[in-house]
DNA sequence: GTAAGTAGTTACCTTCAGGTAAGTAAATCT
DNA sequence: AGATTTACTTACCTGAAGGTAACTACTTAC
């Protein structure tokens, strides 16, 4: 190993933070994961739940999440073809992170967003 | 209250997630917070620690974090003027979130980033 | 007087995330 | 034959995020 970086150092933390942001960055990734945490969903269902995401962005972000092994895409040969998206184990492993994310989002809203 | 949204619903979670992302979004916010978690720092120290951030971006993001009450700026009337940045209680309240962020970032790196 | 260190600012440019609008394809309903 | 539903794709455009480089202002050291 060339220049191993210890787990406790600030440098190590900076790299781990960058890694996580690379996958979760952007306006739609977290919302999509939140939506799928609620249960497997179809394209249209996710779109309606998130509300104002265009099919282009949804399609694009779902592909990116699939490439990063966060979700899987399953095509069902039903009458109008349906596609179901679900979280992989890796996707589900964001649960604790998501929980803290939501807790902090709520805290922040109460502290700041509400007073402006 | 008009149409209260229950804490458990997917809609509530989507809003909290959006709130959190509003503050933490971008390439540099999380790294800056990580850097300051390590202790109060001066402009140049943060810049050297993060490594490749330009003074323009650092200045801009520090201002944004200050506006959101995540950090404070203190000017010291020393011989070359120094400025110290530190986390506010609200800023420090990201510690659990940050921890999960870093845990997951490491997990993700081991699962995916390492294998590509 | 000039270099070096403090903490930025300013102007300019490029890239890409994201938005908008319309089109595609296959099947089923009416 | 035309409308509807599902799940997208494609082309085009805009604005914001971020990068680069140079400049400012003050003080100390050489």
UniProtKB/TrEMBL annotation, chains A, B:
Molecular-function GO terms, alphabetical: DNA binding
Keywords for this protein: DNA-binding, Transcription, Transcription regulation
Keyword Cytoplasm belongs to the record: no
Domain (HTH hxlR-type) ranges: 10-113
Name by which UniProt lists this protein: Transcriptional regulator
Organism expressing this protein natively: Pedobacter chinensis
Gene3D superfamilies on file: Winged helix-like DNA-binding domain superfamily/Winged helix DNA-binding domain
GO term, biological process aspect, one: regulation of DNA-templated transcription
